[in-house]
Amino acid sequence: MSSLDQLSLPPSLRGIDTDMSNQQVIYSTLRFLQSPSESPNRLRPDGNQKSGNIDGKVFQYTQENRRQREMIGNLTREHHILQNDSYLKEKLLTYKTLEYSILKNELLQQKKKQDLLFTNRICQRENKGKFYGNCWSCYGIKCYYFIPESKNWNRCKQTCQSYNSSLLKINDEDELAFIQSQTYRNNYWIGLSYDDREQKWKWINIGPPFGINYTFMNSSGRGQCAFLSSTRIATIECSKTYNCICEERIDDVFSAYFDRYKKKRCNGTCHLFVCFCDNL
């Protein structure tokens, strides 16, 4: 056997007739090697979907960032508006406070002029310290009526009450100093007496004293009442006769004063200060 005969043919070629009348088609699977120039990270078929997800998130973040910037801008504008409004309100408050202080000072000056007018022009005196008839003067929120007639304490109390007034009640040292400057050498009953039933000193219509504490009030004063002069406040039997000091609120005085001029005559029921000051 020749060497040619020893060659073994593949099984698929064995028994093949050389006659080409019965030709057979042989199929083979071909493999192509990847070129080095091609990228090893070629996208898979689902790469487009992942890229779309990333683009969507970027768009979402961009929109959110824009929305937050708009919110910050709106808040900044609101802050500036409120800040400006607060500044205007502060300026308005400062202006109103200044306006109030000016009006308050003007009112105080008018009140001082008014008190001086009533003291100097309405309540005139003789050189001897006696009044021309009945007159009154004002201090603070009260007006005082000096009656230059000698009466006991109870009679003075009744006289003041008959004219819708009361005997003098002293609230503080300033008021006392003003009253004493008006008395000269006369003595006047005031609305302080000893209550025998309660066994203590009391101001008329008020009760225990307020503001001023006198040494005589620490002891019993049965049957005694208080009077004042230009230098002191003292006590004595209520049956003694002194002049009277009545008091009334200044707004009540003005009300009665104006009513008198509306009626053009005193009908006997008006306040003490109006009916007796006929020279006004």
Provide key terms for this protein:
alpha+beta, Ly49_N, membrane, 8 strands, transmembrane helix, disordered C terminus, receptor, 280 residues
List the SSEs and their pairings:
Layout: H1 3-6, H2 47-122, E1 135-139, E2 142-151, H3 153-162, E3 166-167, H4 173-183, E4 188-195, E5 200-203, E6 224-228, E7 233-237, E8 242-249, H5 250-263, H6 272-276
Parallel strand pairs: 4-8
Antiparallel strand pairs: 1-2, 2-8, 3-8, 4-5, 4-6, 6-7
Subcellular location: Membrane
GO molecular function: carbohydrate binding
Region (Disordered): 36-56
| Model regions low in confidence, pLDDT < 50 over at least 5 residues | 120-133, 261-280
| CATH top-level class of the domain at 149-249 | Alpha Beta
- Strand content is 15-25%
The CATH topology of the domain at 149-249 comes to: Mannose-Binding Protein A, Chain A
- Mind telling me the CATH superfamily name of the domain at 149-249? Mannose-Binding Protein A, subunit A
Alpha-beta classification: alpha+beta
Which CATH architecture of the domain at 149-249 would you pick?
Roll
Region (Disordered): 36-56
Keywords: Cell adhesion, Disulfide bond, Glycoprotein, Lectin, Membrane, Receptor, Signal-anchor, Transmembrane, Transmembrane helix
Subcellular location: Membrane
Main location: membrane
